[in-house]
Amino acid sequence: MRENIDINSAHLSLAALTGASFALGTEAYVFAGHLEALVLDLDVGLPAGGLVAASFAIIYALTGPPLAALAGRIDRRRLILAGLVSLGILNLLAALATNFETLIAIRVLCGLAAALVGPTASAAATMLVPPERRGSAMAAVLAGMTLAFILGIPMGSVIGAWGGWRACFVFAGVIAIAAAAVVAAWLPVLPGRGSTSMKALALAFSPRVGRTLLGFAATFTVIAYIGPVADHVAGLHGSEVGGLQALIGVGSIIGILIGARSADRPNATAMIASSFAVSALALSLYSLLPLGGLGGPLLIVLLGLAMVTGAAALFARTPVIQSRLVGGAPDNAAVLLALNGSTVFVGQGLGAVMGALTTASFGVGALGFTAAAVAAIGLVATLTTTSSRASGDHSVAAHSAKEISS
After folding, report:
1. Domains along the chain?
2. What's the whole-number mean pLDDT along residues 48-73?
3. How far apart, in Å, are the Cα atoms of 1 and each of 31, 126, 129, 305, 326?
4. How many CB atoms lie within 10 A of CB 361?
5. At 97, is the secondary structure helix, strand, or coil?
6. The pTM is what?
């Protein structure tokens, strides 16, 4: 398929896939800046509000890998279009939800639709370029997710400040439909690669995948409640929260650049350990800052610093894991990337649940401490993994990849 795609067409196709990722990232947390208004309007408590994010993330995680395996023979373009159009319609329906139960049911369906888009877009990117450019192609798709934090989610917060939380979902629906139109225009037909082995799911037990889980769980213990946290720490609301959310995207790009430089190194343990240490420090600031008696611009600067450094530390790990998973079994890229994406969303869902439990038991002010504790577990797990065990893990992964490819 690659031979029939010229450079300009490949660039347009990658741009379309970046747009699909942007729509997916925007949809996932477009409402976060107005979570308090959402739960108040639907007459539920703030801890229950975490389910709006958790329900989406958990369904995405559970259905992504099996869907990728079952749909291995289906045209990639068709799968992405089906997922984006479904997301567009479902988000418009979410804006009309009259009770919390209906909204959660719609979010569950959104998770299912998103599972058709995320891993398929990354796998499609690897089909558009030669093997030596797979990493940069996947990074282009991942950039759509970071752009969602820089532009999509903050724009949603601004629109929500004008039109209420329901307008956030309308915005997400329009973005998804627009992304579908771009994919239809710019992405060529990309036939499936035949049957895909479910043996790829064995890599779910890799310690590296476990660290991805811990990293995202730590970060999203706070991020799922970013609106209430910003209010608690610095008294920020609405569009002001959108500005902070954009800093998450800036940090994500910094992290991806760091991760890209580390992805080809034989041993990334030092980088991963350092990133967990930075995560723990940054996340603890969400609980420490209100205790310090600070105020004014300095407080907002420190809050912004926590967001940038925390996001950078988190996303520095992502390119390393993706490149190693796909490099071992490129023909099973869709399942492997679905597995990695599932781990990310399981982490996000787990973080949202831990945030709900923490908020219910100790209040919003304790979220940073809970998140930092999870990051510290990731740091300890990384440091206690010996070089021989890491080598053994690499050998097991390579052996599994050979079995998967056979």
Report:
1. 2-190+197-405 (1.20.1250.20)
2. 82
3. 39, 11, 10, 44, 18
4. 10
5. coil
6. 0.73
